């Protein structure tokens, strides 16, 4: 699925990921391929995404301070006000 | 006729002024580019946010409660006046101040009488202007153009929103310059709070027929989104003004450079004329002297 993370100042990340974990306002949750359409608000916390590159899986963590995530047709869009890499 | 040396000095000083103004023009052009980039960077965020907001509010069928939409009897007003940090940008700042003062005199003269109008200046120029005069100024947020980021602007927006929610202000208005093109800025007054409609006007028409899951609930998401969208509206105003400032400075400095060029042309003409006159005078004297000698012998 395709993940996009944008803030008002810049585009933080854009690309294919295997799955990603988000810090929802009411607890963290994971989004896999073919997830149903969803809009969720995010709280402060850790965003994890996993990318497979040449059979090697790579995990990336980012700290975000609240935002929203929209999942639609394997496109995941994260709008956050501040992201710490 | 002017003194030769005086004219020469004048030419020198005008030339160096011209160098400065043309350098400032180029700096402004570079900064304008950066300011415009910021606007383009912000645009996807703002568009997507509006998109999500539309989806959510259509799911709620317009039945949205929010603390920022409350219309109250206006007693206390906060005016956010966006100016620049530096001068030498033509009438840019003056236009803003004039618009703000007119707004106070026309619309809020009653509130102004019992000190109900507060000003939140953004940019050093507005801070200086309003604190020198008899206005109540909120002076915590004016310094943000040095290294402008969303985080800094956010704080000012959050202040305005928080004070509105607590009932300390019944209305918040933005006064800023809108960037039309490099040479044109339009002074705009925008009602920031109370919020008119949750979904921004530009694009209410399209509705997506997707059944979204809302986590934790649609109402919760809307309540999260509204402040975000307000902050973006605020940020947009600041960015527009920032781009306008550099545009205005570029035009002003371009004109100054042209004027200096015209002045130089005239000065050079005067210089050459004076030089010519001096030479002619000298020759006349020599010829006169020679003739006097010849007639003596």
TrEMBL record, chain A:
Residues 1-82 form the ATP synthase F1 complex delta/epsilon subunit N-terminal domain. The keyword Glycosyltransferase does not apply. Its main location: membrane. InterPro entries: ATP_synth_F1_dsu/esu (IPR001469), ATP_synth_F1_dsu/esu_N (IPR020546), ATPsynth_dsu/esu_N (IPR036771). One of its GO terms (cellular component) is proton-transporting ATP synthase complex. It is found in: Endomembrane system. Signal peptide: none annotated. One of its GO terms (molecular function) is proton-transporting ATP synthase activity, rotational mechanism. Pfam families: ATP-synt_DE_N. Gene3D superfamilies: F0F1 ATP synthase delta/epsilon subunit, N-terminal (2.60.15.10). Keywords: ATP synthesis, CF(1), Ion transport, Membrane, Transport. It is a peripheral membrane protein. Produces ATP from ADP in the presence of a proton gradient across the membrane. NCBIfam families: ATP_synt_epsi. Belongs to the ATPase epsilon chain family. F-type ATPases have 2 components, CF(1) - the catalytic core - and CF(0) - the membrane proton channel. CF(1) has five subunits: alpha(3), beta(3), gamma(1), delta(1), epsilon(1). CF(0) has three main subunits: a, b and c. This is F-type H+-transporting ATPase subunit epsilon. It comes from Reichenbachiella agariperforans.
From TrEMBL, chain B:
It is a peripheral membrane protein. InterPro entries: ATP_synth_F1_ATPase_gsu, ATP_synth_F1_gsu, ATP_synth_F1_gsu_CS. It comes from the Bacteria. Its main location: membrane. F-type ATPases have 2 components, CF(1) - the catalytic core - and CF(0) - the membrane proton channel. CF(1) has five subunits: alpha(3), beta(3), gamma(1), delta(1), epsilon(1). CF(0) has three main subunits: a, b and c. GO terms for biological process: proton motive force-driven plasma membrane ATP synthesis. It comes from Reichenbachiella agariperforans. Pfam families: ATP-synt (PF00231). PROSITE patterns: ATPASE_GAMMA (PS00153). The keyword Transport applies. One of its GO terms (molecular function) is ATP binding. Produces ATP from ADP in the presence of a proton gradient across the membrane. The gamma chain is believed to be important in regulating ATPase activity and the flow of protons through the CF(0) complex. This is ATP synthase gamma chain. Keywords: ATP synthesis, Cell membrane, CF(1), Hydrogen ion transport, Ion transport, Membrane, Transport. One of its GO terms (cellular component) is thylakoid. It is found in: Cell membrane; Membrane; Thylakoid. CDD domains: F1-ATPase_gamma (cd12151). Belongs to the ATPase gamma chain family.
């Amino acid at each position: 699925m395709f993940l996009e993370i944008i803030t008002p100042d810049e585009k933080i990340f854009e690309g294919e990921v295997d799955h990603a974990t988000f810090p929802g306002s009411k607890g963290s949750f994971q989004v896999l391929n073919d997830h149903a359409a969803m809009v969720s608000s995010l709280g402060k916390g850790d965003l994890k995404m996993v990318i497979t590159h040449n059979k090697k899986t790579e995990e990336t963590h980012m700290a975000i301070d609240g935002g929203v995530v929209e999942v639609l047709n394997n496109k995941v869009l994260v709008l956050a006000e501040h992201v710490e890499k | 006729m002017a003194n030769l040396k005086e004219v020469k000095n004048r030419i020198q000083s005008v030339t160096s002024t011209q160098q400065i103004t043309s350098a400032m023009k180029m700096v402004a052009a570079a900064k304008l580019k950066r300011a415009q980039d910021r606007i383009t960077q912000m645009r996807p965020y703002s568009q997507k946010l509006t998109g999500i907001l539309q989806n959510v509010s259509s799911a709620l069928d317009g039945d949205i409660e929010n603390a920022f939409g409350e219309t109250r009897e206006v007693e206390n007003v906060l005016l956010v006046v966006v100016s620049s940090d530096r001068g030498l940008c033509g009438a840019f700042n003056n236009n803003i101040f004039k618009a703000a003062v007119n707004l106070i005199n026309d619309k809020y003269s009653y509130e102004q009488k019992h000190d109900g109008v507060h000003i939140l200046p953004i940019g050093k120029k507005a801070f200086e202007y309003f604190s020198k005069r008899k206005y109540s100024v909120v002076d915590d947020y004016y310094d943000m153009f040095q290294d402008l980021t969303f985080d800094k602007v956010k704080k000012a927006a959050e202040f305005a929103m928080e004070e509105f929610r607590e009932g300390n202000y019944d209305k918040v208005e933005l006064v800023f310059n809108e960037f039309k093109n490099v040479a044109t800025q339009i002074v705009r007054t925008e009602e920031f709070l109370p919020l008119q409609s949750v979904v921004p006007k530009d694009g209410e028409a399209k509705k997506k027929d997707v059944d979204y899951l809302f986590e934790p609930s649609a109402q919760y998401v809307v309540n999260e989104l509204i402040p975000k969208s307000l902050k973006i509206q605020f940020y947009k105003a600041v960015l527009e003004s920032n781009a306008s400032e550099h545009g205005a400075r570029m035009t002003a400095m371009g004109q100054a450079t042209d004027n200096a060029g015209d002045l130089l042309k005239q000065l050079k003409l005067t210089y050459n004329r004076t030089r010519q006159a001096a030479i002619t005078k000298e020759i006349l004297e020599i010829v006169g002297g020679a003739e006097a000698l010849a007639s003596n012998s």
